[in-house]
Amino acid sequence: MPALSTVKNRDALKARHAPYWQQLRRGCYLGFRKVSTASVGAWVARFRDENGKQHLHSLGSFEDVSPSERFDMARTAAEKWFGHMGAGGRSKGETVADACRSYLANVGEATRKDAQGRFNRWVFSDAKFSSIELLKLKHSDVKGWRKRLESTPAIRQDKQVSIKKRSPSSVNRDMATLRAALNLAVKDKMATSDSAWKDALAPLQNADKRRNVYIDREARKQLIAHAQSDLAPFLRALCNLPLRPGAVAALTTGDFQPKTAELSIGVDKSGQARRIKLPQSTATLFAHACKDKTPKAPIFGQANGKAWDKDAWKYPLKAAVKAAKLQDGVTAYTLRHSTITDLLSLHGLDTLTVAALAGTSLAMIEKHYGHLLRERAADALGQLAI
Q: Which residues of 191-217 are buried (b: 16+ CB within 10 A; e: fewer)?
């Protein structure tokens, strides 16, 4: 059979449903399907695995480039797929949407609820982007998605579109969720590499200034005192434990053992479940919140019985911040940041223990709180002076 590399040879092929094949190497074939004389044709790859099983993968028509470039484009795409299959990758051809659904099935309840909302707004609603096969996903596809994300206005409290741009930190959180889903897809052999999104989904720098807001213990007391009655216990829990707000909101009565004062924390962004021992004062708070509730009921729920989430606590928390006359930028995450800061700087707890309690890594503690450790070290050295 004539080589598929020249336009002349491909034009001379008779129309048929079955592809014309050209062997690239043992077990790896590039095919060209020409169903009619008027058709530009479509490219397909074929791979034989170590067990002798044949796998087919559609590559597309590449009609957006000149006919003379199509063979090279098809061969490059085929080689990428051969590498994926050779590394034990799947042959199903999963899409961006499939990667997101797989991620939702593999994370804890709090993370899943947050990610579901972000995927609904920014991925599943983008039919063209979400339907792209992971092995065909290009850097330009992801950059285009990011551009649309960044250009979308913020949503006002009344759910109407605002003229205000979305904050860089909000954009970063939306990108981080998609990035986590795509990275899991690589781990699960749904995709071969992260080259299409590694740079395209890189976070905006200096975007999380609000997350660095610190309020002292007295300010936290004032915040709780000015919060509505169903929000106050939730905020108090955040002040007593260095947990993510979503992780506290996801806690159910069955997660707390009053006899041992132990709290089980489900899988959140840390990627693993953990159990912590509560001091008496915090255990009393939890015991009171759990009273007369079923095991699956949220420990710190809203007045309507539903669990708190970021949309539910956002505006009541803003009202409490304003009533307590606290600085702008105080959020639920501020309480986590403040408790971690106090554990390190005021109470001198070691970084390994703080990381374990907070459900994060040593690297993240050192990245965000390293300045506190350096200050402690300087103070300790000062005490050695003679």
A: bbeeebbeebbeeeeeebeeeebebee
- 229, amino acid identity: S
Question: Under DSSP, is residue 115 helix (H, G, I), strand (E, B) or coil?
Answer: helix
Structure tokens at 168: 């860089």
The 10s digit of each residue's pLDDT in 176-235 is 999 999 999 988 888 888 889 999 999 887 665 556 789 999 999 999 999 999 999 999
Q: Which two tokens stand for residue 292?
A: 């007369």
Question: Which helix (H) or strand (E) covers residue 275, if one does?
Answer: strand 274-277
Structure tokens at 227: 């919060």
d(CA 360, CA 93): 34
Q: CATH for 96-205?
A: 1.10.150
Question: How far apart are alpha carbons 158 and 178 in whole angstroms?
Answer: 27
Residue ranges covered by each domain of the chain: 7-86, 96-205, 211-384
Residues recorded for the chain: 386
Smallest CA-to-CA distance from 176 within 273, 274, 269 is with: 269
The model's pLDDT over 159-188, given as tens digits with 9 standing for 90+, comes to: 555 557 778 888 998 999 999 999 999 888
**Cα dihedral sign, 68-72-75-80:** negative
Number of H helices, E strands in the chain: 15, 9
Class of the CATH-defined domain 211-384: mainly alpha
**Angstrom distance (rounded) from CA 357 to CA 95:** 36
Fold of 7-86: Double Stranded RNA Binding Domain (3.30.160)
Could you tell me the CA-to-CA distances from 77 to 18, 27, 67, 68 in Å, in that order?
Answer: 20, 16, 16, 16
Q: Which amino acid is at 350?
A: D
